[in-house]
Each structure stands twice: as C-alpha cells, then as structure tokens.
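In the design runs reported in the main text, the only information available to the sequence generator was the tokenized backbone. The following block is the verbatim input for one such run; it is reproduced so that readers can re-run the procedure and compare outputs position by position.
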C-alpha cells in the first residue's frame, strides 16, 4: 500500500511530539525516510526576530533535504523580500540527492522574509518563506 502525504504529515507530527527526529520505513517497492527538525530555530537576520504578523502565511517544505534559494543553473533567487508572488509560485527548492522538489507559495502576497538559509538542511514542515497576504481589492479604480 503506498504511503500517502496525509500519512507523512501525521508521522511528522507524532515524531515532533515524541522528540524523535528520524524514522525510516522500507517495504517492497517503496521506502520513506522522514527527518524532522527538532533543534532550536536559528534566526537568519535581525528582521526575523520581530514577531510575524498574525495573518502571515508560511511556505514550508514537504520533504527533507537541502534548501536552495535559486535554481542551480541561475544566480538569481526565486524570491526576494518585498517581491509579490502568486499562489503556487516556486519560492525555493529542496535538493534530495539528485532530485529537486519545489517549495510553492500557498497564497498570493508579498514576501515578508526568506527564513531559511541557502544550503541549510531542512526537514518536513520547515518554514522557508513568510508571506504577507494581499488584502483588499485593486487600489487602482
């Protein structure tokens, strides 16, 4: 029976609550290694020390690996502070061996902060980007 994303999310919650940081499951035809970041959070910049607005939205990883702010073939990061993004826009990548998994913006808004450091090891559910959602309608009539 295949492992579903809802199963992975539930396992990650159980691991985090129990203080366990890694689990590995192997069955014929599939394997899963889940690494949860249980260590203290590092603040990447003084700007991040201020509490997030109540309505901020966080783009998180759904896999474990190494965070990449830019595509390996490009110098420019996917997003920068102050930049507007649409829901579903790629805000970073997680490198898992030879594979790259996208991290997408869960909602439209303005990038408030890139939380993760490029090259950092990230686990399932690690916050990557804080987004300030767009409010109200079009300011131009």
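Verbatim output:
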């Amino acid at each position: 029976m295949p492992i579903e994303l809802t199963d992975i999310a539930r396992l990650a919650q159980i691991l985090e609550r129990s203080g366990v940081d890694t689990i590995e499951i192997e069955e014929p035809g599939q394997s899963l290694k889940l690494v949860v970041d249980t260590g203290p959070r590092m603040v990447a910049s003084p700007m991040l020390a201020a509490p997030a607005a109540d309505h901020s939205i966080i783009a998180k990883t759904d896999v474990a690996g190494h965070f990449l702010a830019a595509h390996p073939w490009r110098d420019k990061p996917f997003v920068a502070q102050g930049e507007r993004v649409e829901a579903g826009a790629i805000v970073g990548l997680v490198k898992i061996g030879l594979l790259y998994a996208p991290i997408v913006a869960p909602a439209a808004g303005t990038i408030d902060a890139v939380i993760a450091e490029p090259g950092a090891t990230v686990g399932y559910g690690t916050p990557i980007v804080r987004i300030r959602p767009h409010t109200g309608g079009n300011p131009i009539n």
